Amino acid sequence: MGKKVTVVGAGFYGSTTAQRLAEYDVFDTVVITDIIEGKPAGIALDLNQSRAVEGFETTVVGVTTDKNGEGYEAIEGSDVVVITAGLPRKPGMSRMDLLETNAKIVRQVAENVAKYAPNAVVIVVSNPLDEMTALAQIATQFPRNRVLGQAGMLDTARFTNFVAEALSVPVKSVKTLTLGSHGDTMVPVPSQSTVDGKPLREVMPAEQIEELVVRTRNGGAEVVALLKTGSAYYAPSAAAARMAKAVAEDSGEVMPVCAWVDGEYGISGVYLGVEAEIGAQGVKRVVETDLDADELAALKEAAEAVRAKQSDISSM
Ligand code: APR
């Protein structure tokens, strides 16, 4: 049977994610929903009209939903649901400032996803990411492997881009890794980063690596400060769409994602940015990588910071 993916939220993040998913041409159907009347239908119509030019056969369906769940029938049978609903940051805001507003939205969306697409893998991208992922699992009551969040692939992509630019080398020659939270306790991992297979630390001075680490940690805020009206969506949607594709194709690709950690790195019982093998059931397995002592300590600190926030989530 053909694959079906739903994107909830037809804002910047949702519409660009839907576009990428449609252009992959691996899904039968991409459903895009929003609470705004007409907008998802307009985006679907527009994307479908691009098919003749871009040469894809995926059908995009746009549906307006309401808080009571009306319209959600359209997501039935989805293999993957990407939740992008929620407010983005404005300049000066931290992702955590969105907690209460977005918790209400994500809970309501997740409850409807559980009802109408009970077998879907859920990929959360709404911020604050780690907390919203934890909340989506609580609200859906799905097995933890079937609820994951997008952040690590984006943060890693940002780090990679900064390194490639700084060294004037092709992006392809650079491999980086970013773990931890999608926020202040993000953990870029220089020890696992390479340029043309050589350790990053051999080709870049420590101070410059540190500068890029800090820039990566503030990568979202830098875009927000420039855009002024909202947050990033091109790189974020690229990452989320790749994750959804990996699920649909059961590819087993290893990606940095926000996943439930249960003993890996000596950390348990928390949603956290780690590498994981992604397949039809979501997270197949968390993949532990070698970290140096500082990086491991930073990851544990991130876990505790996220745990403290995530424990507030169940009442939201
Ligand atoms: N159900 C469906 N859609 C909703 C709901 C809901 N209950 N509540 C809000 N939305 C929709 C809005 O109507 C809007 O169209 O979510 C969309 C959000 O779009 P934008 O404001 O353009 O924000 P975007 O840049 O897409 O970011 C979405 O991703 O990166 C994160 O921090 C960001 O939390 C934000 C999310």
From TrEMBL:
Gene3D superfamilies: Lactate dehydrogenase/glycoside hydrolase, family 4, C-terminal, NAD(P)-binding Rossmann-like Domain. SUPFAM superfamilies: LDH C-terminal domain-like, NAD(P)-binding Rossmann-fold domains. The keyword Methyltransferase does not apply. One of its GO terms (biological process) is tricarboxylic acid cycle. Its EC number is 1.1.1.27. GO terms for molecular function: L-lactate dehydrogenase (NAD+) activity. It is an enzyme of class 1 (oxidoreductase). It catalyses: (S)-lactate + NAD(+) = pyruvate + NADH + H(+). Belongs to the LDH/MDH superfamily. LDH family. This is L-lactate dehydrogenase.
